[in-house]
Automatic annotation (TrEMBL):
<dbReference type="InterPro" id="IPR016193">
    <property type="entry name" value="Cytidine_deaminase-like"/>
</dbReference>
<keyword id="KW-0963">Cytoplasm</keyword>
<protein>
    <recommendedName>
        <fullName>Sulfur carrier protein FdhD</fullName>
    </recommendedName>
</protein>
<comment type="function">
    <text>Required for formate dehydrogenase (FDH) activity. Acts as a sulfur carrier protein that transfers sulfur from IscS to the molybdenum cofactor prior to its insertion into FDH.</text>
</comment>
<dbReference type="InterPro" id="IPR003786">
    <property type="entry name" value="FdhD"/>
</dbReference>
<comment type="similarity">
    <text>Belongs to the FdhD family.</text>
</comment>
<feature type="active site" description="Cysteine persulfide intermediate">
    <location>
        <position position="110"/>
    </location>
</feature>
<keyword id="KW-0501">Molybdenum cofactor biosynthesis</keyword>
<dbReference type="Pfam" id="PF02634">
    <property type="entry name" value="FdhD-NarQ"/>
</dbReference>
Length: 268
């Protein structure tokens, strides 16, 4: 179960024409530095829970490693400035990482920042496998499954969530964070540690669909992602090219399919 990373605040609220005392839970936001073999890879603002999963998911989704066996150990240490998360790679993989670092100008907390060229920013994404075919009802139910597990979101109304669902079963994991890409990285990290194949299910997210979310889903091998909000045009093009079914604007029992509708029963 997630630790409570919210804080209770007492703002002065203006309601029904007058000022009154109020209480509101707000999410904690902490600087998290992720280093790889002693070299800082990213510094990001994130919700300080499931930090190990965040680091593993980021390493997998940014293709620092191909699988968890290439990570020898992970250390998380707290300081007055935030959290320091250190990944140590196996020797052979470490050499590959050093070569890649020579192509980068700075930390890459979002997966795009600090990349030296437009060619490197336009990631060469794998084409996902066929995956499962889902009924419209399964997609709608998955959103409800995620919503019911957004404990931090229910307290604060200030964080994003991402979830993974087994196409044949039910909900597997939900993770929350102030950053939507952080929430998805935490999901990826959980699946890796649990030995769950992402290709055997699908993703739901609470945010708009930006291109980095499609990139992460494609690298994970997930064939369908469903979102509460709308996608960007670049995200649609990336999903089309990677073979990902992009379902968005899921509201109640209605939604819109932007790419590869064959994986939704009745769409074709």
């Amino acid at each position: 179960m997630s630790q409570d990373t919210s804080l209770l605040q007492t703002p002065l609220a203006f309601r029904q024409g007058r000022f009154v005392s109020s209480e509101r839970a707000v999410p904690e936001e902490t600087a998290i530095a992720i280093s790889v073999n002693g070299s800082t890879h990213a510094v990001m603002m994130a919700t300080p829970d499931h930090v190990r999963e965040l680091a593993i998911g980021l390493a997998l989704n940014e293709r620092i490693v191909d699988d968890l066996s290439q990570v020898e150990r992970i250390e998380v240490e707290a300081s007055e400035l935030g959290l320091d998360c250190r990944l140590w790679l196996a020797e052979e993989r470490a050499r590959t990482y050093v070569a890649r670092r020579r192509q980068m100008t700075g930390p890459v907390g979002c997966g795009l920042c600090g990349v030296e060229s437009l060619e490197l920013a336009s990631r060469d994404l794998p084409v996902v496998g066929e995956g499962a075919t889902l009924s419209p009802e399964r997609i709608v139910r998955a959103m409800d499954e995620m919503s019911g597990r957004q404990t931090l979101g229910a307290r604060t109304r200030a964080v994003h969530a991402a979830a993974f669902h087994d196409a044949e079963g039910g909900h597997v994991v939900t993770r929350e964070d102030v950053g939507r890409h952080n929430a998805l990285d935490k999901v990826a990290g959980h699946l890796a540690e649990a030995g769950v194949d992402p290709a055997q299910g699908f993703l739901t997210i609470t945010s708009r669909v930006s291109v980095e979310l499609i990139q992460k889903a494609a690298v994970m091998g997930v064939s369908l992602i469903a979102a509460v909000s709308a996608p960007t045009a670049l995200a649609i093009r990336a999903a089309e090219g990677a073979g990902v079914t992009l379902v968005a604007v899921v509201r109640g029992d209605e939604f819109e399919i932007f790419t590869h509708p064959r994986r939704v029963e009745g769409a074709l």
